[in-house]
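Quick one:
INPUT:
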């Protein structure tokens, strides 16, 4: 029953994200994919339902969320928003056991944590057509309504 509710909620969030993306970006499909993936991550953060990670990877085939996660490693914690800190903490080293669901996100965090230059994130996640500034705005848009404690 809970699984059905989560699926329904995830679909509803995805459609809301699509409506937002269409309004903000026209038919901007890369932005829609990122918004949908971030909405699913928000669901994971709020519910702990780890299977939502597989949905995130399918919704964001260009790795834009991984790029965002990688680049956030270079930002001082005090300068991050609550949403950015929550996202970083979800996949920080030692936060949880690496699984097939979270491996790509833990890897993205590790790249950012061990690199000296944020541009390395752009290199590893070069398929992402969304700018770094826009990724931050999409995170704020998709997570901004939740009660995120840092």
């Amino acid at each position: 029953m809970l699984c059905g509710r989560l699926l329904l909620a995830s679909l509803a969030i995805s459609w809301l994200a699509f409506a937002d993306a269409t309004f903000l970006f026209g038919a901007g499909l890369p932005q829609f994919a990122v918004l949908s993936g971030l909405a699913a991550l928000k669901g994971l953060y709020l519910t702990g339902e780890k299977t939502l990670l597989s949905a995130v990877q399918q919704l964001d085939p260009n790795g834009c969320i991984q790029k965002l996660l990688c680049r956030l490693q270079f930002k001082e914690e005090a300068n991050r928003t609550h949403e950015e800190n929550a996202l970083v903490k979800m996949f920080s080293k030692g936060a949880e056991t690496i699984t097939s669901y979270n491996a790509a996100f833990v890897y993205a965090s590790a790249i950012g944590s061990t690199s000296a230059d944020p541009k390395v994130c752009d290199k590893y996640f070069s398929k992402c057509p969304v700018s770094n500034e826009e990724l931050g705005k999409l995170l704020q848009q998709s997570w901004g309504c939740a009660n995120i404690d840092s």
